[in-house]
Amino acid sequence: MISMIVAVSKNRVIGINNTIPWNIPKDRLWFKKHTLYKTVIMGRNTYESIGYALPYRHSIILTNTIKNIHSSTISIVNTVQNALLLLDSSKEHLVIGGAQIYKLFFKYTKRLYITYIDLLVHGNIFFPNFNLENWYTIFIKYYCYNKINLYFKILERK
Ligand SMILES: NC(=O)c1ccc[n+]([C@@H]2O[C@H](COP(=O)([O-])OP(=O)(O)OC[C@H]3O[C@@H](n4cnc5c(N)ncnc54)[C@H](OP(=O)(O)O)[C@@H]3O)[C@@H](O)[C@H]2O)c1
Description:
This protein has helices at 25-35, 44-50, 80-85, 99-105; strands at residues 2-9, 13-15, 39-43, 58-62, 74-77, 93-97, 109-117, 125-126, 135-145, 148-157. The chain is α/β, with parallel strands linked by helices and 158 residues long. It has a single domain, classed as 3-Layer(aba) Sandwich (Dihydrofolate Reductase, subunit A). α2 links the parallel β3 (39-43) and β4 (58-62). The chain is globular and about 45 Å long. The structure holds NADP nicotinamide-adenine-dinucleotide phosphate. NADP nicotinamide-adenine-dinucleotide phosphate binds next to β1, β2, β3, α2 and β6.
C-alpha cells in the first residue's frame, strides 16, 4: 500500500528554497514514527534537502540526473513505474515528497498522514490541491507548539 506523509500550511505551502519553512520537533517525531522501518519514496530535491540516507528506512529516490548513490539503503529510479516495481504490495510505503513526487504518486495513494499547520506561510513549493470529499478522517490529534496550532491527521481514500 502507498501512503503519503506531508506537513502543510494553511495556504498549502510545504517548502521554500529547498528547505521546510518551519522547525517543529513534534512533527519530526510524527514523521519518524510513521516512516521508521518502511520504504520511503522521494524526489531528488527532497533527498538533497535532507542530505543523507534516512536511518532504518529504505529510500527510493526519483531522479534523471543522479545515476548512483553509494548507500546500501538507497535505490535510484528514473520513473514512477520503476519505483512501483520495487514495492512489496503487502507492506505500507511512504511517499515523503516533495511537490513533484506527491503529484506523481497521488493517484496511487490510499492513506495520507497530514500535519496541518494553522499558519499562512511564505513559500514557493505547494502540496497539490485535492478534494477532501474523497477522503475520510481516521485519526486527528490537536497540538500547540509556540502558539502555533497543529492538527495531525490520517486520512483514507473512500
Ligand atoms: N513539508 C513537507 O512535508 C515536505 C516534505 C518533503 C519535501 N518538502 C519540501 O519540498 C521541496 C522539494 O520539492 P520539489 O517539488 O522541489 O522536489 P522533489 O519532488 O523533492 O524532487 C524533484 C526531482 O525529482 C525528480 N523527478 C521528478 N519527476 C520525476 C520522474 N517522473 N522521473 C524521475 N525523476 C523525477 C527530478 O530529479 P532530477 O532533476 O535529478 O531529474 C526532480 O528535479 C523542498 O522545499 C522540501 O523541503 C516538504
